[in-house]
Amino acid sequence: MLKPFEVHVPAEPLTRFEHELDEQGWNALRTLAQETQARMAGRTFWNISSTARGGGVAEMLPRLIAYARGTGVDARWLVLTGTPEFFHITKRLHHALHGSPGDGSGLGTSEHDCYDEVLRDNAEEILVLVKPGDVVLLHDPQTVGLGPALSSAGAHVAWRCHIGRDTPNAEVERAWEFLAPGLAAARLTVFSRAEYAPPQCAGRSLVIQPSIDIFAVKNQPMAPEVARAILATTGLLRETPDTAAPVFTRADGVTGRVSRGVDVIRLGAGPTAEVPLVVQVSRWDPLKDPAGVLLGFARMLRKAPHVHAELVLAGPAVTSVADDPDAAATLEDVHALWRQQSRFVRQHVHLACLPMADSEENAAIVNALQRHASVVTQKSLQEGFGLTLTEAMWKQRAVVASAVGGLQDQVVTGENGLLIREAGDTEAFAGAVRSLLEDPARAAALGRRARETVRAHFTAPRHLTDLARLIERLDAR
Questions:
Q1: Residues 62, 152 contacting (CB under 8 angstroms)
Q2: pLDDT digits (tens, 9 = 90+) for 198-245
Q3: What pLDDT was estimated at residue 2?
């Protein structure tokens, strides 16, 4: 019997944002929080996803739920469990919604039977908890099949899809056909971009863009010497003479210390702290195009050997994320490509698997890596939104990204970063990265404007406001 589990999230006070907003913005947020608390009195706001760690949903949910709880709303988070076959099918759906065939496996009757069976098991346990009138927000393809049972039980059900493709093709249509029975039960559907919504959601879809929490461990301020100490402790940098300790502040206010090492595939020693780093942090997923980043960086090295920079491709330890069964194969493909490069290129490219045993320690390592980077990239072939880019922009990094999906909603090329028009264009990618490495003043100016973009559009107060409006619209329907 498959049973979902609850991730317990402690409340965080909304007052943390009082000094981050102007007076008008703070008063509006506080008023809306009071109205939502009254609207949700006696009811629970459930969020249901497929994993408690790894990926943007697991990044966002605990922080948003914490602030909702801080306003007096009974917000909770459930994580469903599934079989390896179930997660293989949902990964296939993930690729299909991006317009890719993935591994080419089927999405037919037998796959639907497996998908439905896993969700029926989970639904039995969830229905014990969910009451009529509760609000349930389902996240991504793994959960959409829960909709009919929850709706029949009297819950107000919305489904949020964090992925998509601007121009649908046969694979996208195949995914929507598979998901149609569950999708029909949702009162409202939520997408990161209007272009992602299929025709069957017309009249009941709205756009809510993701966000970061500027107070989370991954985004908290960090002195340069502390970042270097953390990276040296993990093995990503050579030992430094800095006297700083590799420490960070945990969500509960307690001081944490980075002690775990990173598994790194490299030739020779790690870079010194003075060497400029080009960094991409993402899941080991072919749609994130780590292979393209490697090839583009290698092209830059060959054309500009005087640019003394090194590349770090970083992702989670491949055994750590239950709903991403393709990670190990993707990493092995990138490793094979790395082995094919010249010795000169291999000496400048590092493949890093970050420890996930302690999620806050992992966040501190990512924080340090992004802050130490000279350039942060997100060369995705398809991208729902791209929160790793948002995180880097908040840290005033110069960013290079593909003009796909939500990445193009964040970056205005030449204003707060650089966009590559064609995602697969390694030459354009190499040129963009090189231009920033050779002009640090321009990179710094882009980074400063990037932070203000995030402050204005992609932080928790805006996101919480959108979720309050979602609850209001669900009740109205």
A1: no
A2: 999 999 999 999 999 999 999 999 999 999 999 999 999 998 777 799
A3: 87
N- to C-terminal Cα separation, the chain: 35
- The structure tokens listed for 473 are 């619209």
What are the pLDDT digits (tens) for 126-170?
A: 999 999 999 999 999 999 999 999 999 999 999 999 999 999 999
Q: What pLDDT is recorded for position 323?
A: 58
Single-letter code of the amino acid located at 408: Q
Q: Using an 8 Å Cβ cutoff, are 280 and 293 in contact? A: yes
Residue 262's closest CA among 313, 336, 334?
Answer: 313
pLDDT at 325: 72
Closest CA to 304 of 438, 200, 421, 401: 438
Cα distance between residue 403 and residue 422, in whole Å: 7
Strand order in the sheet with 349-354: 263-265, 349-354, 310-316, 277-281, 375-378, 398-402, 418-420
Domains for the chain: give ranges and CATH numbers.
5-211+459-476 (3.40.50.2000), 224-457 (3.40.50.2000)
Cβ within 8 Å of residue 108, ≥6 positions away: none
Tell me the C-alpha distance between 270 and 129, whole Å: 50
Residue with tokens 């400063």, as numbered in its chain: 448
Structure tokens at 458: 């992609």
Residue 210 vs residues 60, 192, 261: alpha-carbon distances, Å: 8, 7, 30
Residue 321 pLDDT: 62
Instruction: Write the CA distances from 241 to 228, 257, 357, 402, 425, integer angstroms.
Output: 10, 18, 28, 37, 40
What is the spatial distance between Cα 443 and Cα 11, in angstroms, rounded to a whole number?
A: 38
Name the nearest CA neighbour of 290 among 334, 325, 332, 326: 334
Positions in the chain whose pLDDT score sits under 70: 320-324
pLDDT in the model for residue 219: 97
Closest CA to 224 of 373, 371, 398, 391: 371
